[in-house]
């Protein structure tokens, strides 16, 4: 396989500017006999549906600290950097002293300080004898930044609560052991499932060396795969817009680009757009890509079969091209691995037949980890406009399927 002009991920996130507790988004009231009452707004799940969160009130004190509550807060603030940390994980940290949050921080992007450093800066001298909550084990090695364990020890925290151990072999357990050896009380495995879900792609990449692959498609009520999204799905705040923000790359049908320039683009403010990957197969296949803006062209890769290389194709002039004898899923995943991409989305819109071979290969190799199916609120009675039955994944069984109501549609989320 030959690769021309590899692209590096484009990160663009301003490091956070934290304030002390009295200036944060939390609100603290003094109510009757209670010394403190903290309230947070309704949280939303990954795709915009509101859900209740816990409201904690009562007499403040270290003996009443709810470890799970603060780890959940770590996960919540870690998600502020969604789509910006790959190949690093998303991490949040909260510093608590005498029942009050005195510092918060999250890891904003590669090369920036880790969550613990921002939280300790926020806390200042109040970090001494405090408890540090962190969603992922603090690192104990020098990389782009110094070890977080050293920062915690220098700040003289007395206790550290860790959501989960880091699966990265150069980190795993070493940060925890360093803190314990220095006399710091360490608790591990609080809200572990929630912390694992936050960084499922990072964990998969660390354990397997390959990108986490998710399949997304839409169906009508009668099970037909349809070439459309639900109401508002691709607008800011819509589930599809948020989904694109989370992924490093998205594999799409070339027909999607040819039809009214429907380029998958996240509408979330400040979102890093995924790399769009399309395939050009066979001597007679024509991409028919219209003129693309420079920002989209720079985030587009065309996988071509070697027998097509000599053909002039003005529609992809200046676009990065990957050439191989026969396009395969392994080629795409190898390319993504070289780019250090943690996760890849396969989006079944456009002409589903363009991706059928890719899906069959994915099923044979057990290369799919996750599936999202949007159920649209109508009955599709004919096989037009890309409507069809999806047979390439016959025999695969999804597990832990959960429904999320999104406006007029339902999004089913599961794992293979």
Name the shape in a single word.
elongated
- Assembly of the depicted chains: single chain
Total helices: the number is 11
**Percentage of residues in strands:** 15-25%
Structural class: alpha/beta
- Largest beta-sheet characterization: 11 strands, mixed
Rounded to the nearest angstrom, the radius of gyration is 23 Å
- Cα distance spanning the termini: 29 Å
Q: List segments where confidence is low: pLDDT < 50 over at least 5 consecutive residues.
A: 2-64
Helix content: 10-25%
Number of strands: 21
Mean pLDDT, nearest integer? 80
Function: Monofunctional pyrimidine deaminase involved in the riboflavin biosynthesis pathway. Also has a reductase domain that lacks catalytically essential substrate-binding residues.
Enzyme class: hydrolase
Cofactor: Zn(2+)
Keywords: Hydrolase, Metal-binding, Zinc
